[in-house]
Amino acid sequence: MNREKIFIIAGEDSGDLHGAKLMASIRQINPKAEFFGIGGNRMQGEGLQPTEHIKNLNVIGIFEVLKHYSRIKKIFNSTINEIKKINPDRVILIDYPGFNLRLAKKLSDLNFDITYFILPQVWAWKESRAKILDQCCKKLISIIPFEQNWFSQKNIAVHYAGHPLSDLSNLTFDRKSFCQKHGIPDKNKIIILMPGSRSIEIKRHWKIFEKTVKTLQEHHQNLSFVLLEGDNVNISSTVDLVKINDNSPFPYDNLQYEAISVADAAIVCSGTATLETAMLKCPMIVCYKLALPTWILAQMLSKVKYLSLANLIAEDKIVDEYLQNKMTAKNLSSGINSLFKNKNRDIVIEKYKRLIEKLKTNENPYNSAARYIYD
User: Fold this and answer.
1) 4-160 shares its CATH topology with 169-359
2) For residue 100, which of 44, 64, 49, 54 has the smallest C-alpha distance?
3) What CATH fold (topology level) applies to the domain 4-160?
4) What's the pTM value of the predicted model, to 2 decimals?
5) Beta bridge partners of 159
6) DSSP state, 167?
7) What are the sequence ranges of the domains in the chain?
8) Average pLDDT over all residues of the chain
9) How confident is the model at residue 60 (pLDDT cuts 50, 70, 90)?
10) Residue 87, by phi and psi: left (phi above 0), alpha (psi -120 to 50) or beta?
11) CATH class entry, domain 169-359
12) How confident is the model at residue 234 (pLDDT cuts 50, 70, 90)?
């Protein structure tokens, strides 16, 4: 194939993960592809020539976006100018609908070839956005099983690539080796802490996580807590970390999946991490807290029962969610205590197995997406 310029945009940590792997699959089809755009450390590791880093866009919530509107608007305008200057052969938008849908409308008027990978959850709220996707994008690629049917009922063509995280269920790790490597006593229960992939989430959640740890330590001996951080955020520079184990909790980078896989339970800030944890078969509870105005608005607009991806894709409650006012140290510690009981743990694992079966695909989802882009 000829040299090709691709402008690709992800606005958050999960998009950076998926974007990097999609880039690798695209390069298998066209080794001469050059990538420009917005991404994080993973996408840059795959050769992205960045026009902006996602840490400057990583904001969630309508009112939070308004607070940072001038900065985001400046990035939006500069992104359009960069695209005009680079004049890419293709534009690939990944998730992040508040930014990317507006961009799709602008770029459609300029006749760019636009693919949207990982679609906005229009079935959950603001269904009218489906029309924008249909009118402005040449190709739509979904990773959620029921989306293809939902869009087809509206006469909108969508390619289902399969969910990229489904292969995680095949990973296995040795708990004893992990414990030895990190000085964790064999008899200890391991609890994973995932307070968020954005600085704003960590600031909002951390005090509750901290109190939860103290509550659990008051009622149990032999607990080890492992703190995991996203690739594009530094927790220790965001909040003050107290000593939780004999040492401070240790962030992991490349070992996140190993830690989750061998753990006894996890407290997970809602997002892609909930699905990763389910695929790795670690019992978890899910939590999340928004700014109050954003929460009230979300309650008014949302059409779905659940927040976590694990529950949404399963179309069933497979893990407990502690949201907003229910996200308290008392409730989170109670939820973890429940998962320590073998009966409750077994129920969760069985539901995970059904979810894993639902997400199984015959082809690597990134390869499927890349092939569809070039069809």
Assistant:
1) yes
2) 54
3) Rossmann fold (3.40.50)
4) 0.81
5) 141
6) G
7) 4-160, 169-359
8) 88
9) low
10) left
11) alpha beta
12) low
